[in-house]
Amino acid sequence: MESSLKVTSIHIIFAIFASILSAGASLGWFGFKNDIISIVFLAVFVYIAGQICQKLYKDDVEGFSAWLWDGIVPAFLVWIMVYTLLFNYL
Description:
It is a single chain. The protein is mainly alpha-helical. Helices cover about 80% and strands about 0% of the residues. It has three helices and no strands. About 25% of the residues are buried.
């Protein structure tokens, strides 16, 4: 499997976990309702995924453009879709 596909897959998995926690923060699962914390969850999870991918594939993926299009943008789009579905249907 190509390394950019692996990087994208890792970011998407982390984005799904972040969207579950984000929906929980917006719906009050943690004792408070705060939509701003939802975006913080995404930023933290994308940063962690980026650090993991940097350690695993630092020779194959270089430059900010590669990280933007292989990691950050797909993670953000998946987060928006899953967060919206969970927020509306839970």
